[in-house]
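Appendix B, example 12.
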Amino acid sequence: MRNCWVSILALVMSVIALMLSYRVAPIDFKDYWGFVLGVQSLLVTILIGWQILNVFEVKRQIEDFNETISKLKKENENIIHDKISDYDLTVSALFQQLEGIRQFNSGHGKDALAFFMKSLKLLNAASDKTPIDGLVSYILGIKSEKLYVSPISKEDVDLYLQIISNCTSEKKPELLKYVMSLPVSEKNDN
């Protein structure tokens, strides 16, 4: 658009220069053509200068565009990395929960509880909290099924209480009460 206006301005200036030169001096082809050639040379110089400025302007815009693309690319890479990490946490938690279910169905309450707590810890760190309610149901299922849980260490109880304190489930008080009611051994079984 700028080039169009500059071209129009150059044309108008050429016409004005021609008109002024006709009024000031009588038509003498030597002087007349010299004046026209001088005006035309000046206008061509201005146009070339304008084009050089446009080259620098376009170069700056390209650099700004490339910088914007780099920023967007980095932001998207970070978002994708965060989503993959979050998905990895959720999948790992579901695998832990699956092993806990297997232990639960086999009648190993202590091992099932350990796997469920590992799963709950991973789900607390993930952004997708939907599997937590099912997991909490399984943990409380150990209690309701009266599945025997052999005594666990005080360190494990403290760890479980810390994991549950970060939980977002509505049944958090029941979980805390259940873990505090578990039999505690005097030594660390791990």
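The beta strands are 152-153, 184-185. The chain has a mean pLDDT of 80.
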